[in-house]
Amino acid sequence: MKPIIKHSLQALSFIAVVAITVLLFPRYNTSFRYHVEQGKPWGYESVTAEFDFPIYKTDRQLEAERKQLMADFAPYFIRDNGQELPDTVLIVSLTDMNYLEQNAFENISVLTGRTSVRYPVWKLLTPKRAYERYKTELQPTILLDTATTAYMQEQLLSSLSLTQGVVQEGQKIIDRGELVTEEKAQILLSLEKASLENDDITVHQRALSTTGRVIMVGLYLALFVLYLFVFRKKYFEKLSTVLFFCILSSVVIVMSCLLLQYSSFSIYLIPFAWVPIITRVFYDARTALFLHIVTVLIVSLIVPAPMEFFFLQIAVGMVAVSSLSDITMRSQLAQTAGWILLTYSVAYTAYTFAATGEYSSIEPKMYLYFLINASLIIAAYGLIYLFEKAFRLLSSITLVELTDINSELLHRLAEEAPGTFQHSMQVSNLASEAAKAIGANALLVRTGALYHDIGKLASPDNFIENQHGRNPLDECEPKEAVKIIISHVTEGEKIARRHHLPEMIIHFITTHHGTSLVRYFYNSYANSHPGEEINRRDFQYPGPKPTTREAAILMMADAVEARSRSLQDYSEESIYEMVDKMIDTQISDNQFSETPLSFKDVEDIREVFKLRLLAINHHRISYPTLNK
Predict the structure, then answer these.
(1) In 25-91, which residue ranges form alpha helices assigned H by DSSP?
(2) Is the N or C terminus of the chain more exposed, i.e. has fewer CB atoms within 10 Å?
(3) Distances 347 to 42, 98, 204, 354 between C-alpha atoms, Å
(4) Cα 400 to Cα 322, 403, 498, distances in angstroms
(5) pLDDT along the chain (628 residues), means of 10
(6) CB of 328 within 8 A of CB of 397?
């Protein structure tokens, strides 16, 4: 892809995130710009009422008053005069009695004409109790009048006032630095509600508000782009990686906007930890945390309590990144979910105590939200698979699955080319130890090593490690023999693609010999054709060269392990000399010019190979025979 087209698509990706985010932001009035935190000093300028507004009662006050009104309410009944009984004998159906008991009514009102008479509930009889008293079956004498009861309840509740006092225009509400008491918080929240009901914002104000949102969201995304450009340029240069970041962040932002706009559920039901967890699985911890911070900052522009939200989410993001280094088992994700639940609970409790200084300010349902949130974290296991397939990425989970030697391909290699399989196992061990020594991805190089020679399945008998005496290549001309040897690279790529192996594993197959010479046949041909000008390409692997540290490690390990099998003497000197010679040859052939390996990395790799080969091929004592 041309650079101009690629960078244009990258820019469009970030512009799309800004557009989607701003379009989905809840449509709230912008005239109130304060965030009220009870128990904290007022951090804004002094606030003075710009218009008259009522002081609204809190939900707690309204609920208490409703309970008090309903405590004196008596549901309405009408008489059934079908039975000749005294008016004082009040028999109700079992259903009506259950209704009275469930709602804890103490009295009822019995309608007689246009008047009503109150009776205590304890005087009422059910048909069963009436039978026990009068020794005859009796039907209910009064019936619940549901229509009148509902109407009178509605009338009673409608008389409840939602306000308690008025704040006059010009009245000072609070000064900077003044403590936000419960009373002050109630007045400020009333001011916010009155401001939101005052829908008199002009088109100019709405345009400025939208512009401000675009700039804020764009600024946060621009900071993330700057981070990628300065510290993770290889991510920035890859379009699929940029799309991955944009889509992952957008998923969480869109979920947050929809929840806040169309439901009354808490924002803490949204699993924001998906962002750092999924990013960490495929990329590094620093990028995961940075993307998480940017996502949280964007959502904090629209949440009701941004300070609390930001504090909790940053703590959760740090825990998610720290507790999940390489996910290779499902249990690791469950453990991370547990740590996130604990972090949410502790952080929320601490923040509430610090903000209000009261136990009563803790909302128990918040812990239920945190539990649901932690449960949704486990669903990231499925999302990891989707992102992996959509963006052709490679997770540690997949690598672990690929290293299973009982898988179809590795089982075939063990059965049909046992010598190659054993060689691959040894290379795998050598390469993973070297990767650990220089901080490379040991699991990735171990997996690549197991599959690097699968091309030999096309003709296993042509390779020395699978032969038993006869070598078919002895009957071929050097140029023909070298084509057979080189073909295991191209055949390996074909087999890998047929079995849908990841591209990163295929990279190991195609680069494990780079563009090096097949020296055995090159030297044989040169010796038998003295003075002839030889075309090196006839004896050269097609490449490409390794481009990663892991691929370079595999190339070294493959050559060193294969050469070690031809040693006659496994002394320390011979092993050390062989390792140095093989790696120096690859360096002189310029095989690592496209990798980020440093000189120190190469020296550390040499040391690991020497020590491991010396340990593998250590001297064993001979067992004495038993004399007769």
Answers:
(1) 59-71
(2) C
(3) 22, 45, 41, 10
(4) 21, 5, 20
(5) 74 87 70 67 76 84 84 88 71 90 89 85 90 85 90 87 85 81 83 69 73 89 92 89 92 91 87 94 92 94 85 94 75 89 94 80 89 90 87 85 89 92 94 94 94 92 82 79 89 93 93 88 80 81 92 95 86 90 92 92 94 79 70
(6) yes
> Which region, left, alpha or beta, applies to residue 327 given φ > 0 means left and ψ of -120 to 50 means alpha?
beta
Residues 6+ apart with CB under 8 A from 258: 24
List beta partners, residue 172: 48
Cβ pair 86, 133 in contact under 8 A: no
Residue 23, both tokens: 């379009």
**Angstrom distance (rounded) from CA 501 to CA 507:** 10
Angle at 113 between CA 107 and CA 119, to 5 degrees: 15
Q: How many helices and strands (H and E) does the chain possess?
A: 25, 8
Q: How far apart are CA 343 and CA 318, in angstroms?
A: 10
Quote the tokens at residue 71: 């405590």
**β-strands 163-167, 47-48 pairing:** unpaired
Indicate the length of the chain as a whole number: 628
In the block, residue with structure tokens 């062989």: 578
At 245, list the tokens.
């970041």
What is the pTM for the complete model shown? 0.70
Residue 582: which of 559, 613, 604 has the closest Cα? 559
CA distances from 334 to 270, 331, 340, 383, 429 (A): 17, 5, 10, 15, 30
Alpha helices (runs of H) in 329-364, residue ranges in sequence order: 330-356
DSSP lists the bridge partners of residue 166 as 54
Q: What is the DSSP secondary structure assignment for residue 107, as one 8-state letter? A: E
Q: What is the DSSP letter of 182?
A: H
Residue recorded with tokens 């409790």: 349
- Mark residue 461 as left, alpha or beta (left: phi above 0; alpha: psi -120 to 50; beta: remaining): alpha
CA distance readout (Å), 491 to 329, 416, 497, 510: 33, 15, 10, 10
Per DSSP, the residues of 158-177 read HTS-SEEEEEPTT-EEE-TT
Structure tokens at 530: 């003295």
Question: What's the token pair of residue 15?
Answer: 């512009």
Nearest by Cα to 562 from 460, 461, 427, 448: 427
Cα separation, 55 vs 167, in Å, equals 7
All domains in the chain, ordered by first residue:
3-25+204-390 (no CATH), 64-158 (no CATH), 407-616 (1.10.3210)
Backbone angles phi, psi at 248, to 5 degrees: -60, -45
Instruction: Count CB-CB contacts under 10 A for residue 246.
Output: 21
Q: Which of 455, 423, 449 is nearest to 551 (CA)?
A: 449
Phi, psi dihedral angles at 167 (to 5 degrees): -100, 125
Q: Give the contacts of 287 (CB within 8 A, at least 6 positions apart).
A: 227, 228, 232, 235, 279
Q: Which two tokens stand for residue 156?
A: 């009673």
Whole-angstrom Cα distance, residue 18 to residue 224?
13
